[in-house]
Design goal:
Elements lengths: L1 H22 L8 H32 L9 H22 L6 H31 L9 H8 L5 H17 L6
Helix pairs in contact: 1-2, 2-3, 2-4, 2-6, 3-4, 4-5
Length: about 180
């Protein structure tokens, strides 16, 4: 698993573009195909990260008792929207046309706030699942920051999620 994180987060977004650029005949010779390849190499880690957030958030939401369980409907939208935005933005960068700034800025800001909401949702549900009480201001700020520094933060968060999962399995409850 550690090797997968290394490949996805280091090799693909950094080594891949260097190889693509160095294969170009000149700096001005980078065409649409190369830009698309570099964008897709950057898109893959985002898919891995948001998929991990989706699975962790969904499991943690199911681990919280129903009276405290947060709604998951906007969480699903907030996970999918940044991917759709990034893919559409990549398509417009590769195409000859580009989005007007009046459209790019608000949709980009909304994608950023969706990511913040995802971090907050996972942080809040992890605290609820571990303690059974709603978090107070600052109770889970370390977890929020760990999510911001993914994949390093995942090494601290994933064992906590695994303990909750193992506890549910030991008590005979299913993961759903």
């Amino acid at each position: 698993m550690c090797l997968l994180f290394f490949v996805v987060w280091i090799v693909a977004p950094f080594v891949g573009p260097v190889a693509i650029i160095s294969a170009a005949p000149s700096p001005a010779g980078i065409g649409r195909a190369q830009v698309l390849a570099m964008g897709l190499l950057a898109f893959f880690p985002a898919i891995v990260f948001l998929s991990w957030l989706w699975f962790v958030g969904s499991f943690l939401r199911s681990a919280v008792r129903p009276s405290l369980r947060p709604s998951g409907s906007f969480f699903r939208v907030a996970i999918i929207y940044p991917l759709v935005f990034a893919f559409a933005e990549l398509g417009f960068i590769v195409a000859t046309n580009s989005w007007p700034v009046s459209l790019t800025v608000p949709t980009g800001i909304f994608a950023f706030f969706c990511l913040l909401y995802d971090f907050n949702f996972v942080t809040k549900t992890l605290f609820l699942a571990e303690t059974g009480e709603p978090p107070q201001m600052g109770d889970s700020s370390a977890t929020f920051l760990q999510l911001c520094f993914f994949p390093v933060g995942a090494w601290f968060i994933q064992p906590r999620v695994n303990r909750l999962y193992d506890g549910r399995e030991a008590s005979g409850l299913s993961a759903r």
